Amino acid sequence: MTQRLEVETALRAAAPHALVGALRDVLTTAYRATAVRLLLTDYGGTVLRSCDGSGHGAGSLSVFGSPEGRALGSQEPREQQVAHGDAVEHHLPVTVRGDRIGILTVRLPDEASTPEAVDDLRYVADLLGREILVAERDTDVYQRARRVSRLTLAAEMQWQLLPARAYRDARFALGAQLEPAYAVHGDNFDWSVDADALTFTVTNGMGEGIEASLLTNLAVNALRNARRAGVGLADQAALADQAVHDHYRGAAHVSTLLLRIELATGRAEAIDAGSPQMWRMRGKSVERIALDAQLPLGMFEESHYTPQEFTLAPGDRLIFVSDGVYETLSPRGETYAEHALSRAIHATSLLPAAMVPREVLRDVADYREAESLDDALVLCLDWVGDGHC
Fold it and tell me: What tens-digit pLDDT sequence spans the chain (389 residues)?
């Protein structure tokens, strides 16, 4: 307990950009660590980037096949014996409420690699994740480190607008991913959870580049503004619709799917205001949940929106996809939704929600066999309900 307190004190006293160095110093003293390294997941979710404290990645590892990647995927510590030495590297997931930030690797002498030490290091990795989230308000070090290449300006705007890429508690789990990660422009997701409900949106702003990103930014912030005012789902849509129309006068619109789920009952309200689609896996059955189509936000002045209701059952998985997924064409001209989406949902059924979007998007890329110029978004929601699987 004293050692944990030392680590916590050191991290909280460290400058925002110097968390890794401060952690290295205290782990060397308290746990006899001989090496400490932080690896951060990149924006595409396929690479782990070394963060040396300067903000420049000093090496990359694939999340597929490496011991560090396996630790990230399993969300369990992995041990790796150091070649030609009597030391062990411990790869520990750095995760905050389901959001997989990266991996902390700590090398300890064999005799210091006790179960008690590993348990302490798991606590340290959790603490580090929370400190990174706080530190990112004041430094670019961690965001720079996780970039394989430069983001376009439109992508920069979109990533700054997003919440975490994953969230988990006893009642549900969420995961989402955008592609192309470094050049996305109009697609977006957003969510918020309080004591009573989970509210989230899946958005597709029309157009390309910065114009699409500006449009989506306006719509998402208008939706947040309405949500934080405490109004219902229909009024959230109406107020955002008004904000977009007041600015663009009908020349641009935003396709949005809005949902609000009561945490105690699983009762959901949904508004389908555009192109994002919702699919449900219940047991082994996969089907699209077709909602009444309503007007995209901003298309006409003073549009009115009516929520539809349905109820989630424990064990349900909902998959939300943008048109950049379901309209993707194979070389033979067949759409992904018609021939492959249901299969991909089945194939990823055993994966946690945080990993599903990336795997579906990989399947989309294989299906089209060519680079796409369109955005693609996948969001996965696993509903537990009472907290017991």
Answer: 789 999 999 999 999 999 999 999 999 999 999 999 999 999 999 999 999 765 454 578 999 989 999 999 999 999 999 877 789 999 999 999 999 999 999 999 999 999 999 999 999 999 999 999 999 999 999 999 999 999 999 999 999 999 999 999 999 999 999 999 999 989 999 999 999 999 999 999 888 899 999 999 999 999 999 999 999 999 999 999 999 999 999 999 999 999 999 999 999 999 999 989 999 999 999 999 999 999 999 999 989 999 999 999 999 999 999 999 999 999 999 999 988 999 999 999 999 999 999 999 999 999 997 777 689 999 999 999 875 44
Which residue shows structure tokens 């969230």?
167
Q: What is the DSSP letter of 328?
A: P
Identity of the amino acid at 372: S
| C-beta separation of 272 from 291 below 8 A | yes
**Residue 40 tokens, joined:** 């951060």
